[in-house]
Amino acid sequence: MKEAPHDADSVNARLLVQAGFINQLAAGIYTYLPLGLRVLTKIKTIIREEMQAVGGQEILMPALIPKAPWEATKRWDAIDVLFKLKGAGDKDFALGPTHEEVVTPLVQQYVKSYKDLPVSVYQIQDKFRNEPRAKSGLLRGREFAMKDMYSFHASLADLEQYYDRVKQQYLSAFARCGLDAIVTEASGGVFSKYSHEYQVATTSGEDIIYQCGQCRWAVNREIAEVKDGDACHRCGKGVVREVKAIEVGNIFKLSTRFADDFGFHVALEDGSAGKVWMGCYGFGPSRVMGSIIEVHHDDAGMRWPKSVAPYHVHLVSLSHKDESVKNQIDEAAQELHDALEAAGVEVVWDDREDVRAGEKFADADLIGIPLRLVVSEKTLSEGAAEWKERHETEARLVKLEDVLQETKEWLAAPERLTSHG
Amino acid sequence: MKEAPHDADSVNARLLVQAGFINQLAAGIYTYLPLGLRVLTKIKTIIREEMQAVGGQEILMPALIPKAPWEATKRWDAIDVLFKLKGAGDKDFALGPTHEEVVTPLVQQYVKSYKDLPVSVYQIQDKFRNEPRAKSGLLRGREFAMKDMYSFHASLADLEQYYDRVKQQYLSAFARCGLDAIVTEASGGVFSKYSHEYQVATTSGEDIIYQCGQCRWAVNREIAEVKDGDACHRCGKGVVREVKAIEVGNIFKLSTRFADDFGFHVALEDGSAGKVWMGCYGFGPSRVMGSIIEVHHDDAGMRWPKSVAPYHVHLVSLSHKDESVKNQIDEAAQELHDALEAAGVEVVWDDREDVRAGEKFADADLIGIPLRLVVSEKTLSEGAAEWKERHETEARLVKLEDVLQETKEWLAAPERLTSHG
Questions:
Q1: Engineered SS bond to B95: which of A7, A211, B128, B349, CB 3.0-4.6 Å?
Q2: Other CB atoms closer than 10 Å to residue A267's CB: what's the count?
Q3: B304-412 architecture in CATH?
Q4: What is the distance between the alpha carbons of residues A382 and B227, in angstroms, rounded to a whole number?
Q5: Could you tell me which residues come within 8 angstroms of residue A105 by beta carbon, excluding any fewer than 6 positions away?
Q6: Is the pLDDT of residue A421 over 60?
Q7: How confident is the model at residue A419, as a pLDDT?
Q8: What is the CATH number of domain B11-207+245-295?
Q9: Phi, psi angles (nearest 5°) of residue A353
Q10: A–B: how many Cβ contacts below 8 A?
């Protein structure tokens, strides 16, 4: 779109809408357009791989959940953002904002003995929250993507061991998405001292956390017993600073709360009925997508990490009024495009003929694909393409015959993004 | 599960639930368990590839749709299966059973000129229908997977050309899923003489179609002007027979109906406002999954085509009371497993120790993975594994060193399934 949406209340909404990644249907409800869906899919693939690495088995639960299990857990009235609706025969349903009410009786049907534990299942699915103040683009939606994993254990010790393993793996998931997530102690509810949030520092964040500059220990203000400038309780060396941040994930020890509600026990070695301990692990792919932009952008637009960019290379060919020059440019760009794609490099090619160079460059900056390659009369006179990485200010010429190899090396190299949010 | 569910009203529900592919949460509402989700994902991948082959661009629209666009098309009250709900601020929403109301105003925002057409967008998303008689497992659900594509054209001629192209491509999509779909003329609604359904012949089908044995022309009974035994109107050579069938897809020419409702026009070459012609193309991945089982099963269980089977190979190792023999068996099975997986063959390995051979074989037949390989003391005494394809009655021995190569050749060979439903 030529203009940024005038009602955008956040950087991610403004840039993602203007660049055609998402389109708003209603407050907190978005369509993912082709570029945006590519990013979302890549984030989902990353979290899927990370959950498989901790032995999670992927399933897919329904969004429509009958009332009965919500009554069993006494959450039908307790969850204020529950979307409720009537089905045929006047039956009550809720749209799932979380799935303990489905997954607990589900696993109960298959797990009978302590020998069947531990089990960990996850899904990547759209969640619904009847959010009165949906806002901030993809950060607080009413329909949004979620990866929710639930683990089941025969003992608290086993839950704690697995919880720590997932806690660690989550850092890898966020890092692969280009986010430097801070593990932050948060309220653990009734059954556990703490839960853990994954917070990404950004001035646009709505959460306040306190973090030690030395040991990186952090705590959410909601439960903090420290204030800005205090000495760190944990390491005793650093100073605790107030940081604005966005929560991009959270993990909880649920203890036996949900298993107890459903009478889910397992047969122990001596034949008696043992309790079942649960953990749950949330990660929001759409919120991660919005957070990446809050952190990685500049005045000209978005700056996607290579790992989740909709394409690796933004190829721009500049048209020319002389037909034979134009044909040379088109041919060179086509060759480059085909060679890169054949090597598995994802290329989007701006071959529009009626658009000025300046507008094409502005669009490329807005869309924020990490590497821009330009083919024009000027670059071809040097037998080259112009190479410019999105986070750099200077462009340089790379000989056409070297572009493929240099691109492959660039793609394999570690990310060099720094936060600007 | 040891026993088939007593309340299953269809073959697909009985077998998919018993074998642990799906789990019923409520009437017409299912969880996909790991095996079932693998099948569903493969079907989605096939239809995604086929839609990309006709230039479809993938997007993802929301399930929550505000009331306003439904009023614009006068379908808020007309669609009797619309799930309706209230959001914050007492706002009305529906859960999308179809997405013309979202996609038409969406594309309208980006398409301004006839030069921007044609455009074709699709999504693979969960749909909702407040179905009073949800039944037949995955065949008639209240929450179900759908691929819906919508195409936009500057002329009827362009729509018709594209429609024919998609009509053809759909046959490839169904064939790749192991379904022999019959293109069937059906009611076209107000704006078009016919729509086209894709019907799969099976005795459990609820639709009645008439099909010519010679030219394969078919028509749904709802609009048929022929009866069983009539001469074919189309080719004049064959005889028309009544066939029970399941509808697995349908395509419609929508004419300008929805574009008109939203005032969606494009600027023509002479500057005047031109009409926009639409087509829509539905394909139900979950219904396809159920239909595959209705067609491909026998008394012992399911028989998945290689293309959508949850795994290619069901490896069974039989335990032995002698520890050293047991170790030999485990080692041989592990080697086979690793060699196959390294070659990209998907293997599920039944290494349960406390389960009899007969039970393992019965489970393998039920689950229906196309190739079963057994490693036991008996097969190892011949330096071999037992090879049995699901649709064959006889097993044979294959030397361990030949299994990998034979499996690769088998996987690359055309499908040899025949219908038994």
A1: B128
A2: 14
A3: 3-Layer(aba) Sandwich (3.40)
A4: 74
A5: A69, A262, A264
A6: no
A7: 58
A8: 3.30.930.10
A9: -95, -25
A10: 110
d(CA A253, CA A188): 8
- Cα B12 from chain centroid (whole Å): 13
ipTM: 0.96
| DSSP output for B266-305 | EE-TTSPEEP-EEEEEEE-HHHHHHHHHHHSEETTEE---
Paired with A127 in beta bridges are: A144
Residues of chain B in contact with residue A33, where contact means CB-CB under 8 angstroms, are: 59
B26:A128 CB<8 A: no
Give the CATH fold of the A11-295 domain: BirA Bifunctional Protein; domain 2 (3.30.930)
The helix/strand/coil state of A126 is: strand
pLDDT of residue B421: 46
What pLDDT digit, counting tens, does each position of A336-383 carry?
Answer: 999 999 999 999 999 999 899 999 999 999 999 999 999 999 999 999
Residues 43-102 of A with CB under 8 A from B: 57-66, 83-85, 87-89, 93, 95, 102
Report DSSP letters for A202-268, one per residue.
-TT-SEEEEEETTT--EEEGGG-S--TTPBPTTTSSSBEEEEEEEEEEEEEEEETHHHHHTT--EE-
**B33 and chain A in contact, CB less than 8 A:** yes
User: Nearest to residue A10, comparing CAs of A27, A32, A35, A31?
Assistant: A27
Cα separation, B128 vs A364, in Å, equals 38
DSSP symbol at A33: P
Q: Which residue of A has its CA nearest to B58?
A: A34
Task: Spell out which residues of chain B touch residue A87, defining contact as CB-CB under 8 Å.
Answer: 83, 130, 142
Give every residue of chain B whose pLDDT is below 50, as ranges.
421
Count Cβ neighbours within 10 Å for each residue of A324-358 and write b for 16 or more, e otherwise.
eebeebbebbeebbebbeeeebebbbbbeeeeeee
Q: Which residues of A19-57 are buried (b: 16+ CB within 10 A; e: fewer)?
A: bbbbbbbbbbbbbbbebbbbbbbbbbebbbebbeebebb
- Average pLDDT over chain A, rounded to an integer: 95
Q: What is the mean pLDDT of residues A172-200?
A: 92
- Token digits of residue B362: 């019965």
Residue whose structure tokens are 């997977």: B145
- Show Cβ contacts of residue B33 under 8 Å, excluding neighbours closer than 6 positions: A59, B20, B21, B22, B23
Query: What pLDDT, on the 0 to 100 scale, is given for residue B9?
Result: 86
Torsion of CA A98, A101, A104, A110, to 10 degrees: -110
State how beta strands A91-95 and A347-350 pair: unpaired
Run of H or E residues at A185: strand A182-187
CA dist., res. A330 & res. A376, Å (int):
9
Question: Chain B contact for A128, CB < 8 A?
Answer: yes
Closest to B184 in 3D by CA, of B212, B204, B165: B212
> Residues A294-317: what's their mean pLDDT?
97
The CA distance from B262 to B101, in Å, is 9
Of B32, B57, B85, the CB nearest to A84: B85
Length of chain A: 421
Q: pLDDT digit string (tens) for B315-351?
A: 999 989 999 999 999 999 999 999 999 999 999 999 9
CA distance A127 to A86: 18
Q: Do the chains contact at B143 and A85, CB–CB below 8 Å?
A: no
Report pLDDT digits (tens) over B166-186: 999 999 999 999 999 999 999
The answer for residues whose C-beta is within 8 angstroms of residue A34's C-beta and 6 or more apart is: A310, B57, B58, B59, B121
Look at residue B419 in the predicted model and tell me its pLDDT: 58
Rounded-to-integer distance, Cα B108 and Cα B117, Å = 11
Does residue A355 belong to the interface with chain B, where contact is any CB pair within 8 Å? Answer: no
